[in-house]
Amino acid sequence: MSNTERRKAIRSLQSKRHIDLVPNMDCVERMYEIWASDVFDLPKMQGYLPAEVYNSLKETIETGKALNIDVADQVAEAMMEWAISKNARYYSHVFYPLTGNSAEKHDSFINISSQGGVIEHFSGKLLVRGEPDASSFPSGGIRSTFEARGYTAWDVTSPAYIMHTPNGATLCIPTAFVSWTGEALDKKTPLLRSDVALNKAAQRVLKILGHDNVDKVNSFCGPEQEYFLIDEALAALRPDILLTGRTLVGKSSAKGQEFGDHYFGVIPQRVQVFMQEVEDTLYRLGIPAKTRHNETAPAQYEIAPLFEVANVATDHQQLTVTVLRTVAKKHGFMCILHEKPFAGVNGSGKHINWSIGNKNQGNLFEPGETPQDNAQFLLFCAGVIRSVHKYGHLLRAVVASVSNDHRLGGHEAPPAIISMFLGEELTRVFGQIKDGALAPAQTKTTLHVGVDTLPKLPLDSADRNRTSPFAFTGNRFEFRSAGSSQSIAGPLVALNSAMAESLHYIADRLEQLLKELDLNAAIELVLKEIMVEHGKVVFNGNGYDPQWQIQAVQERSLANLPTAVEALPMLKSPEVVEMLSSLGVLSATELSSRFEIYAEHYIKSIEVEAKVLIEIVRTQVLPAAFKHLQQCALWLNEQPEMPSMESPLAKKIGAEAWLKYADIVNENQDYLQVHWLEMQNLTLLLQKSLRKLVDISEQNKDESLEKQMHYMVTKILPLQNEIRMVCDAIESEIPDDLWPLPTYSEMLWML
Ligand code: ADP
Ligand code: MG
User: Fold this and answer.
1) Number of structural domains, the chain?
2) How many A from CA of 382 to the centre of ligand 1?
3) Which of 339, 379, 532, 668 is 20 to 30 Å from the Cα of 203, by its Cα?
């Protein structure tokens, strides 16, 4: 039998279900006892550091003031002492290269003393700067290999932490990764820069609005992570999942998500045990995991933390992914973060909940109680409307990837057209502002954006329109297009920067208008101007409706960039380069290097998929099909002849019955023959398309990146899909005991 391994894997599932385990009734540790126990956070620093060193460090963290190297020396010493008390012998500068993953290089605290003994040593210099040989990281032409060095720089604002293994631990220090010439080679550097830009712009607007006491404005983020969990033993038999993160072949399970019974369903016990370990690990790492639930597709789940300052939330998101993957292995699962691992059921996204604010003014997207607050709220909201309209193509580009292409625009995720949902109430208010006809509010108080009479806005606290890529959800915006495997840094950089540019625009315009108008009138006019120019990005309807695709493009001139092939080049569009470089977030060189890296990633991913598909077809699907053909031939040959009408059997059952059975035997023979012919046909078809894929995957190497991407999406991907359809037809036809690959129903329904 060809499916012995598959059967073994299925049998091994039984022992993993914890059905025999008795629930633990003893008290587990209280949350505050484990909270941040693996983080060198402010309270621990305070315990380890002299007061003046602690205060200086705290000031750096809170205000972004430069760090003094003497302080760094003492912090390093303290950090090492604390880490050693946690079993660490190594430290690592963790950084976030443009692959979207986390990267780490480990160094020991070891030093040899003059007597030849070992001493533990860690200095401010080592803490502040690392020099990984970075030649193997994609840099998009920024560095050539002979000047390969990049350096990692300690990000004081994101706390150091400990990662444990069964026989030790490592002190991990979040860092930015830059080239010798200062170019950002990572995801963190631009995010930090975008926060600086946002702060500058927001301060200008807040000051014009009359605030004297304006603290540093930050961006905040609460990222929701969707993922699949399948049994590791089954995953191990699927080279496609192992190497590409998704199934390249596989007939749909007869039951999918049509009953909606998985969404918010009871979490399987084995999964809950896994989740609990993930969450406990996260709490120890100071990551505030908050929500867990079953998602729409079978075997799909979600985890969401409480929101944090965007930079920390981003590091924590990366760490959450690492923890999900590691703990999954420990529990015999594979955690799949690909955007579309299984055809026919929903894929996974990463919703980015985003807001901006500071200590004194609070959340700037919070509709206020007083007219003054509301004018401010509307102004910041208008800033977002302008940003999403003007830089919609950038927002589309930062969520573009080969894997997210499988999800966006399907009826499970927002369309590729970037529009914005505001909710009925806010849309009405902005509509009236645009028409210069502010009608009385429903609360009967006169609605006037001026400052005197604006009532409390009764806004929808949360929207139920899940079809919009970008939605106002009461006091924050939710960007829903990001894919489950992507770093949230890119989208946050785009949001912060576009917002900074819009806030500068608003500040400039207000300053101009204030020469002739009072503040109320100036605000009203700016709001109106923004709505006239950018209001068409607001769309509260059904984003899945095919009519919307037409209307968005034809009537509203919104960009429809269906795949990464159209979207990624937007990183080099003149408005994007102008905006990001003038704000000091990303230079033209950095942007074009990003385009190059992401485009190459796109091309290589499809190349790898093609290779894996070729391998699976050659070594698994075709052999199974041939075996079955052989089986069919044997069956056909071995069919015993129908005994003649003269035979004793025929005589015994009588002529009428004999005739009936003769028909049945003939029909069965016909069925077998037709089936055999169909199988022959499918097998031949498969061989032909496979040969074609082998031929055409080798072409097209010398073209520009744009052309190569285009080739992939127009030539390779369709052929891959064609091959998949034939494989799935074969899977539907051949006996189960010949099929070597774990099936969709086994992978999705067996936890
Ligand atoms: P949903 O209803 O969209 O599934 P969840 O509760 O799963 O919502 O996730 C909402 C996320 O939004 C959480 O991470 C939450 O902390 C975050 N969030 C709440 N308020 C804000 C805010 N002001 N800024 C940023 N994120 C926020
Ligand atoms: Mg959610």
Assistant:
1) 3
2) 21
3) 532
